[in-house]
Amino acid sequence: MSTIAVVGAGKIGESLLSGLLHGGRGADELLFTERHPERSAELTARYGVAGVEVAEAAKRADVLVIAVKPQDIEPVLDELAPLVGPDTLVVSLCAGLPTSLYERRLAAGVPVVRVMPNTPMVVGEAMSAISAGSHATAEHLALVTELLSCVGQVIEVPETQQDAVTALSGSGPAYFFYLVEAMIDAGILLGLPRAVSEKLIIQSAVGAGKMLAETGEHPVILREAVTSPAGTTINAIRELEKHGVRAALLAAIEAARDRSEELGKAHE
């Protein structure tokens, strides 16, 4: 069995630890690093997993999952560089950072797999896209797929598509939360109590998502099924189109893609 160390136990890192434990990994197979002692003690008490320094994680782990913020990667790589060799699989969960960065900064031949997860990992419903670096094999990808399947679904994409994935599914939950927030406010504007508006919209979002996932129908077909001639929904759709909501979403996702590219170029 592999020893897996999560470097950076923030929300995503903690969610992965929890998912791996629920997926059958033993606490003795897992490690994590955390800069704040109070947070480290809290996670150890909650999960029974040992918190260690980055250097110890690098020495003991067969798989190193890097889950720090992109702007914090440089000092982490400085620590890992003299300690990580080709026998260690490095899995990067850092938005925008290419596998070439790790391959350039770490020892020759280190296998790297780039992952773009998203925050529904917290509830076991993540969408994670994975890409192999120059030295990562099919076996490495299979291992990463197995690990991430504990916290959601996994898809393999060419690394050239990772910035687009980051913009679409990596940031995607925020777009849905933004729309739900606006719809709840609309309910209040129409005279509904906040609690009622929240209940109506959140369950509608859950139900709509389940229909998309389980029916296999195209979103257009599902939308048209709600859109009666001269009815309420078509009037609402007309206003959305009039205000350029579709175009705004396209522009927003392009802007997120551009920022992901900038994050990678900052480390060239």
TrEMBL record:
<keyword id="KW-0521">NADP</keyword>
<keyword id="KW-0641">Proline biosynthesis</keyword>
<feature type="binding site">
    <location>
        <begin position="67"/>
        <end position="70"/>
    </location>
    <ligand>
        <name>NADP(+)</name>
    </ligand>
</feature>
<dbReference type="GO" id="GO:0005737">
    <property type="term" value="C:cytoplasm"/>
</dbReference>
<dbReference type="Pfam" id="PF03807">
    <property type="entry name" value="F420_oxidored"/>
</dbReference>
<dbReference type="InterPro" id="IPR028939">
    <property type="entry name" value="P5C_Rdtase_cat_N"/>
</dbReference>
<keyword id="KW-0963">Cytoplasm</keyword>
<comment type="similarity">
    <text>Belongs to the pyrroline-5-carboxylate reductase family.</text>
</comment>
<comment type="pathway">
    <text>Amino-acid biosynthesis; L-proline biosynthesis; L-proline from L-glutamate 5-semialdehyde: step 1/1.</text>
</comment>
<dbReference type="InterPro" id="IPR029036">
    <property type="entry name" value="P5CR_dimer"/>
</dbReference>
<dbReference type="GO" id="GO:0055129">
    <property type="term" value="P:L-proline biosynthetic process"/>
</dbReference>
<feature type="domain" description="Pyrroline-5-carboxylate reductase catalytic N-terminal">
    <location>
        <begin position="3"/>
        <end position="96"/>
    </location>
</feature>
<dbReference type="InterPro" id="IPR036291">
    <property type="entry name" value="NAD(P)-bd_dom_sf"/>
</dbReference>
<dbReference type="InterPro" id="IPR053790">
    <property type="entry name" value="P5CR-like_CS"/>
</dbReference>
<keyword id="KW-0028">Amino-acid biosynthesis</keyword>
<comment type="function">
    <text>Catalyzes the reduction of 1-pyrroline-5-carboxylate (PCA) to L-proline.</text>
</comment>
<dbReference type="Pfam" id="PF14748">
    <property type="entry name" value="P5CR_dimer"/>
</dbReference>
<dbReference type="InterPro" id="IPR008927">
    <property type="entry name" value="6-PGluconate_DH-like_C_sf"/>
</dbReference>
<dbReference type="GO" id="GO:0004735">
    <property type="term" value="F:pyrroline-5-carboxylate reductase activity"/>
</dbReference>
<protein>
    <recommendedName>
        <fullName>Pyrroline-5-carboxylate reductase</fullName>
        <ecNumber>1.5.1.2</ecNumber>
    </recommendedName>
</protein>
<feature type="domain" description="Pyrroline-5-carboxylate reductase dimerisation">
    <location>
        <begin position="159"/>
        <end position="263"/>
    </location>
</feature>
<keyword id="KW-0560">Oxidoreductase</keyword>
<dbReference type="InterPro" id="IPR000304">
    <property type="entry name" value="Pyrroline-COOH_reductase"/>
</dbReference>
